[in-house]
Amino acid sequence: MSAALQDPRSILLHSTDNTAVAVDSIAPGALVRGVVAKARIHKGHKIALAPISLGAPVLKFGQIIGFATQPIEPGDWVHEHNVAVQEFDRDYRFAEGAKADDNLLPENQRASFQGFRRANGKFGTRNYIAILTSVNCSATAARFIAKEVERSGILDDYPNIDGVIPLVHGTGCAMDTKGEGYEVLKRTQWGYAANPNMAAVLMVGLGCEAFQIGKWKEAYGIVESDAFRSLVIQDMGGTRRTIDAGVEAVRAMLPLANGYTRETAPASELMLALQCGGSDGYSGITANPALGAAVDLLVRHGGTAILSETPEIYGAEHLLTYRAADRAIGEKLVDLIHWWEEYSARHGGEMNNNPSPGNKAGGLTTILEKSLGAAAKGGTGTLRGVYRYAEPVTAKGFVFMDTPGYDPVAATGQVAGGANVLCFTTGRGSAYGCKPTPSIKLATNSDMFRRMSEDMDINCGDILDGVTVEEKGREIFDFILKTASGEKTKSEALGYGDAEFVPWQLGAIM
Amino acid sequence: MSAALQDPRSILLHSTDNTAVAVDSIAPGALVRGVVAKARIHKGHKIALAPISLGAPVLKFGQIIGFATQPIEPGDWVHEHNVAVQEFDRDYRFAEGAKADDNLLPENQRASFQGFRRANGKFGTRNYIAILTSVNCSATAARFIAKEVERSGILDDYPNIDGVIPLVHGTGCAMDTKGEGYEVLKRTQWGYAANPNMAAVLMVGLGCEAFQIGKWKEAYGIVESDAFRSLVIQDMGGTRRTIDAGVEAVRAMLPLANGYTRETAPASELMLALQCGGSDGYSGITANPALGAAVDLLVRHGGTAILSETPEIYGAEHLLTYRAADRAIGEKLVDLIHWWEEYSARHGGEMNNNPSPGNKAGGLTTILEKSLGAAAKGGTGTLRGVYRYAEPVTAKGFVFMDTPGYDPVAATGQVAGGANVLCFTTGRGSAYGCKPTPSIKLATNSDMFRRMSEDMDINCGDILDGVTVEEKGREIFDFILKTASGEKTKSEALGYGDAEFVPWQLGAIM
Ligand SMILES: [Ca+2]
Ligand SMILES: [Ca+2]
Ligand SMILES: [Ca+2]
Ligand SMILES: [Ca+2]
Ligand SMILES: [Ca+2]
């Protein structure tokens, strides 16, 4: 037997799994993690590492992907012929998999980072001044204000400030002010204003738009202060005067913003947004589970991680209802799923995330397993909360926020929810970056990591070569702490983040 | 009698009208345009200038706003008690009001401007290089390419080029590639690439997005050339290399783009986009009819004008079907109206443009009259074509393009349709500006014109003080020719246009 046959590569995605994934095709008789393969197991398919009795759960990612429909022996190929999910799929089993505390570490054993403490006790990982816009009609004025402040060179005198961000968008008018699109925009704007990575906020409007700054301030009890100013072009008498007044307003905010300095903060003050985009066949076995391992660590250290992208977990919501902390949290998720069915139907489409014949040929057995490839980045913790798009996230631990899968829109919702750091897994190679929230990009494969080395922060492709998911998880966790403490990510070095504010647009544009 | 009573101000909106609009409240017995008022006629309401027999059309804006339900005498107050539209409203009367040629001037009497002749024979009024983006994920790369070219100072050596425009947006992925949202984006991108104000185009993509540049090029038969290049971040190996290659691609386009110089072009090569935003009570009696008068002139000179903003003519489509050149054109408009009913219903709303009690108190008698306040900017010409959003406009004369009322979205569709100049009426004061199409802003009232003098190009408020609609129309027409020949508008001087590319987003964001 050749060395290759004796030791084909495989990945164990979680220490509690009873299956491993073949990286190379496994020949019958080959030795895999101490088990002799009983059949040919193709690349991407699963081999049983332990006996699984009839009806017992098949585990991958530390989670149930289905149940044995016949007794499975170590070394067996594990796929449709011996696994099914029917029972599980018909029952949400609310909170049955909930754990009391996700192995929370005692406070004195928890990691820390260097962050900016805000008046409300939250910590920022960056220190920005935001220029929000109520409507596209004030976008150019907002951008010119930021540009003039930047050009003036005055920021050199305020070294603790990371920059001035114009957050412009294409909506804010010709919309139903009683509709969900308006509510989403309202929450998103508030969420950005309140994100702990913001030191101060200027909001610029036109005047006659549907999104009225006055009403918005009233809704959230926002008052004008050294940290919040608003300006309306029609009240100011045009663009030039608005820019002048805006530059003045930002200048007046600089001393306050610069007064924030980094101090030691517990890792429990981190709120991590989880994203993936441009997935490939490796996403579900390298970067996503590795990020999941980092999330499990973050959760043990008292932090928060937000899984999102509802269309990608569709059909496998049982995974999350099962590990919801309580029934109410699980039911919130089920409500979201129903909303998406209605939303798709409204646009003449339908939701479908079932494994395709191609998925099955590639080794994905059940919809749970397919969705877990995406959801794996959320780790294995108990689901502590379910939030609508851009809602403030208040729970600690692992939570879910409803968003589309589309990266900039999804991330915008999470940042509005309060995320102060973001991890983004990508196979094809995303160029995403965000302000005010630093975004760590994780490559699923070494080829792409090398090809796009100036955009990628961490290579998870080496998991295929033997680095364990746990090891990679620790590497990511450490990187998160360093990033949170001020080390720049690749996308920050490139200057990303001024064009990626994309609030979810819902409802008719009239 | 005081002078005020003898000569209260009024507006005659078109030379063929049998009604005038009171600018000041008219007392019974006051003399108005040679007619003695028979009743109190409030500000904004109409006075009859000629006898109107039972069933005869009541004319305002040179168009039918209703029919007399009783004989009307000169000096009568004209409102709901003696006007109704029921008959007209139930029948589209396709093409009954069509004219053979809209008084087209002989070619040797037509005006001209100085424009850039393109290979296809069309003329630009500006000479830009565009950087299009297939998806939000390539937005930052596109903006950095433009920024580096600008910063390098190399444009100083190419004085015929107006600039490099990054046209970024929030969509391009997580959409149904068989849906109408995708088609709209496809057309919009093509329309911008083909707009005669573009000398050359670079398109930047990420690689894994739904909007595939390769497929798009195939759909329109676009081939790589000195005037068109595309770059894909994932193929290039990341952001930095894409920026470098993009800067190189733009530099290579500069000699070709700079080779275009202004030459004499007939006014028939002008395609004028009509917009209004931030309307007020004066829009329908000053700026809109004045712009309509300019459009009638442009049409006589062989040019094209695009009316849009379908929700604002809803319920009064009869106005346009009546003056459609033929039944097919009228039916296309009716189809659009039905599409909007379905679109609104899909989002849980409904279309309604009826005059409200407030509208009626302000003097608006019928839905035709209300919609004409908006449609007046299209003038009185025969409707020569009806286009879907962002479709290439091929007809000469007065045409309609389906768009929402939302300014940046509506204008984006018109520019994609080929508009090389734009007129925008505003009462509250819009700050809109566009690249590549220069945008002339028309104030409806003198107060706002003075208050926002750095944003407004033309004051139409002086119509209230006696300047006639015809005079103002000629002023606007002359201004259009000067602008088309290179004179900068206020919004161009301010630098607007990099944040106002907002393709209409339709369909679910997944
Ligand atoms: Ca995504
Ligand atoms: Ca299901
Ligand atoms: Ca409008
Ligand atoms: Ca009607
Ligand atoms: Ca109707």
TrEMBL record, chains A, B:
GO terms, biological process: D-galacturonate catabolic process
InterPro entries: GD_AH_C, GD_AH_second, SAF, SAF_UxaA/GarD, UxaA_altronate/galactarate_dh
UniProt KW Lyase keyword: yes
GO MF assignments: lyase activity
Xref: Gene3D superfamilies: 2.30.130.110
Pfam families referenced in this protein's UniProt entry, alphabetically: GD_AH_C, GD_AH_second, SAF
Membrane in keyword set: no
Domain SAF: 17-84
This protein's UniProt keywords: Lyase
Family membership noted in the UniProt record: Belongs to the UxaA family.
Record protein name field: Galactonate dehydratase
Organism: Elstera cyanobacteriorum
